[in-house]
Design goal:
InterPro entries (chain A): Peripla_BP_I (IPR028082), SBP_2_dom (IPR025997)
Distance between the termini of chain A: 74 Å
CATH topology of the largest domain in chain A: Rossmann fold
CATH class of chain B: Mainly Alpha
Mean pLDDT of chain A: 89
Keywords (chain A): Signal
Radius of gyration of chain B: 20 Å
Largest sheet of chain B: 2 strands, antiparallel
Helix content of chain A: 40-55%
Subcellular location (chain A): Cell envelope
Oligomer: heterodimer
Number of domains of chain A: 2
Strand order of the largest sheet of chain B: 1-2
Number of domains of chain B: 1
Family (chain A): Belongs to the bacterial solute-binding protein 2 family.
Structural class of chain B: mainly alpha
CATH class of the largest domain in chain A: Alpha Beta
Domain Periplasmic binding protein (chain A): 34-299
Number of strands of chain A: 13
Shape of chain B: globular
Helix content of chain B: over 70%
Structural class of chain A: alpha/beta
Strand content of chain A: 15-25%
Order of helices and strands of chain B: HHHHHHEHHHHHEHHH
Strand content of chain B: under 5%
Shape of chain A: elongated
Largest interface: A-B, 40 and 40 residues
Number of strands of chain B: 2
């Protein structure tokens, strides 16, 4: 009898320990988050990763960050997304490359009960984002259209509101590329009637060498070219190199780029390039992780749209802490 | 297929040497003709296209990287092989050159040597995979292509390596002017082409390149150490990858780990447009240069015309089809009549 009682006591004590133990674990468990990015190579994605890692450390979560080698590999990225779903992590962060192709894959994550928050670029989810959506809870992003139209205002100011301007895009298919282009083009068309836009050229994937060749050709074809707007880091650098090769006097043709990186920052400091728009990549990573952890742990429903901000910077304000913190080498 | 066999047989027999030579020449003349026609077309559409500024800084400069890759890979394709790794190997070599030059504070010449040597090593690795492990060239070089892409990212830590501000004269490798009005990058391309043409036509390695491509088994039976020569030929191709990587970094002022993927297809296209047979045994360096120039003239011309980019792609595709189809038709006719 005594023995039985002891066993019961021990068993119930154990059950208690195990029970409370697992309860404690549920709240404090290190959350596993899979982040599927659009790339790994550009330092922009490295900054997103850094922001996500820092935030994860603060919130007792671990992240696994991956992305395809180039931003044109939609299939590769979807394989990564499927692989992440199969791992059954606590949450997934996803930056859409194929905005329509990814929707069915995101639905699969929803079916598997894994919450998804998107970052940088949203997939074309049907209906509104949120807890009712079978696609994603929301997206932390830079309002690229607004960023593009800020670049247009800056360009117009630099060239005195008239002349020929060329837009070099880095993608005809990815949403960020489209928005950065359209934001610029629509603003120029609406507000600056005296600026002539040449047909948009594309350096697919932001290939700096192709951007250089496009710029060289544009300089030959348009002796009166006033400005170039490049929609990502690779394009901006390629255009700058073409200016160098053509031995253009600094500032003869204005160049506004996107993002940062050592070479682009050097070009802006030297005056070869007028300025660039920077997003807040670390903010994108941090906000995504924050939204997911709070949702999984506290059931706090994140906002469907989190705007992480952008800034125009040039030689003058490049050291401003608000700017400098977002620039990467 | 039977024509291919016939072609190989006639090469081996050597009886038809004169007519085979004539056929080869006609191929090149036709390619050169298309180049001239395309050039004249764009000049009429927009005369500024023919300005020296555009020809040297636009067309010829654009040919440097793809052209050097195409020269090296011409050897490989003549052996009946293929090298898919040259694009991403360019990125890997560029990154290694960048890292080495910056870490050891090397000058321009030593930097170029590093590039050529590392490029050659990648080629030798391809050669060994093909000859020692007996992997088909397509698979061996596809594996190297993937590995090189990954290594470029790993070695660079995903960050571009910046040259210009730190290394004196690095940008002059491609953009300086040893000869007035001709960018050094263009000079490197043409000197590289002349050296390659001499190697292909006047040396043992060149003779064996053709022999292996025409009939590898027969070459082996005649006592040639085919495997050793294949390693050397892939290594030789690698040297040109190394040079292309150096020119690329000089043009950009930096080495970027995300560049290069896709360049292999542009280079292979240039080789084929230039009349080299994917089946092996036939090809010329001058044809390859003409092929690379056709591509560069076309792409540059369409940009000068400021056509919508979508149409630029479509037209580029159509011209490749016409160029290679025309050559095929001519060969078939020549095959039938001979």
């Amino acid at each position: 009898m005594k023995k039985v009682l002891t066993i019961v006591a021990v068993a119930s004590a154990m059950a208690l320990v195990v029970g409370t133990g697992s309860a404690v674990n549920a709240a404090d468990k290190t959350l596993k988050i899979e982040l599927i990015s659009k790339g790994e190579t550009h330092q922009f994605w490295q900054a997103v990763k850094k922001g996500a890692e820092d935030q994860a450390k603060k919130m007792n979560a671990t992240i696994h960050f991956q992305g395809p080698a180039t931003e044109t590999m939609i299939d590769k990225q979807l394989e990564m997304l499927d692989g992440a779903i199969a791992l059954k992590p606590d949450a997934i962060g996803y930056a859409a490359l194929g905005t329509t192709e990814s929707v069915s894959h995101l639905k699969a994550a929803h079916t598997a009960g894994i919450p998804v928050y998107m970052f940088d670029t949203a997939a074309s989810c049907p209906g509104a984002l949120g807890t009712a959506s079978d696609c994603a809870l929301g997206v932390a992003y830079t309002n690229s259209k607004a960023a593009g139209s800020l670049a247009a205002d800056k360009m117009a100011a630099l060239i005195g509101g008239k002349g020929k301007v060329l837009v070099i895009g880095h993608s005809q298919t990815n949403q960020t590329g489209i928005d950065r282009r359209d934001g610029f083009v629509n603003r120029i068309k609406a507000k600056y009637k005296n600026i002539t836009l040449l047909p948009v050229q594309y350096s697919e994937g932001g290939d700096a060498l192709k951007a250089q060749e496009i710029t060289s050709a544009a300089l030959v074809a348009n002796k009166d070219l006033k400005g170039i707007y490049g929609t990502n880091e690779g394009v901006s650098i390629g255009a700058g190199q073409a200016f160098k090769a053509a031995k253009l006097t600094k500032g003869k043709v204005k160049l506004i780029g996107f993002d940062s990186g050592k070479q682009q920052v050097a070009n802006i400091k030297s005056g070869l390039q007028s300025g660039a728009i920077t997003q807040s990549p670390m903010g994108i990573g941090a906000k995504t992780v924050e939204a997911l952890v709070n949702y999984v742990r506290e059931k706090t429903v994140p906002k469907p749209l989190i705007d992480t901000g952008f800034y125009y910077y040039d030689k003058k304000n490049i050291t401003d802490p608000k700017i400098a913190g977002n620039l990467y080498e | 297929m039977s024509e291919a066999v016939k072609a190989v047989e006639s090469e081996v027999e050597g009886g038809n040497r004169l007519s085979a030579f004539a056929k080869r020449e006609i191929g090149r003349v036709l390619a050169l003709g298309s180049l001239v026609v395309i050039f004249i077309f764009f000049t009429i559409m927009r005369p500024v296209f023919a300005s020296w500024e555009n020809v040297s800084g636009g067309i010829l400069m654009s040919t440097t990287v793809i052209g050097l890759l195409a020269i090296g890979t011409t050897f490989v394709i003549i052996t009946g092989g293929i090298d898919l790794s040259i694009g991403t190997a360019t990125a890997l070599v560029a990154i290694i050159v960048g890292k080495t030059v910056m870490a050891l504070d090397l000058g321009v010449v030593s930097g170029m040597i590093v590039g050529v040597v590392v490029g050659g090593l990648v080629g030798v690795i391809n050669g060994l995979l093909i000859t020692v492990l007996k992997l088909p060239p397509f698979i061996a070089t596809l594996a190297t292509m993937k590995a090189a892409q990954g290594l470029a990212l790993i070695v660079s830590d995903m960050k571009p390596v910046l040259f210009t501000t730190d290394v004196k004269g690095w940008d002059s490798i491609a953009q300086g002017n040893l000869i007035p009005k001709i960018p050094n990058g263009v000079l490197i391309l043409f000197v590289g082409a002349i050296i390659a043409a001499i190697i292909l036509n006047k040396t043992v390695i060149g003779r064996y390149t053709f022999a292996i491509g025409s009939n590898e088994a027969a070459t082996k039976l005649s006592g040639v150490k085919v495997n050793n020569w294949l390693v050397a030929i892939y290594g030789l191709g690698g040297l040109y990858v190394g040079m292309a990587a150096v020119v690329l970094t000089s043009r950009l002022g930096s080495a970027r780990p995300d560049l290069g993927l896709g360049y292999e297809l542009e280079a292979i296209a240039a080789v084929i447009i230039g009349g080299t047979s994917l089946l092996g045994g036939k090809g010329t360096i001058s044809g390859t240069i003409i092929g690379a120039l056709i591509m560069a003239v076309l792409v540059n011309g369409l940009r000068i015309l400021e056509l919508q980019q979508e149409w630029q792609y479509v037209i580029t595709g159509i011209v490749i089809v016409i160029a290679v189809w025309g050559d095929n038709v001519r060969r078939r006719r020549a095959g039938e009549t001979s």
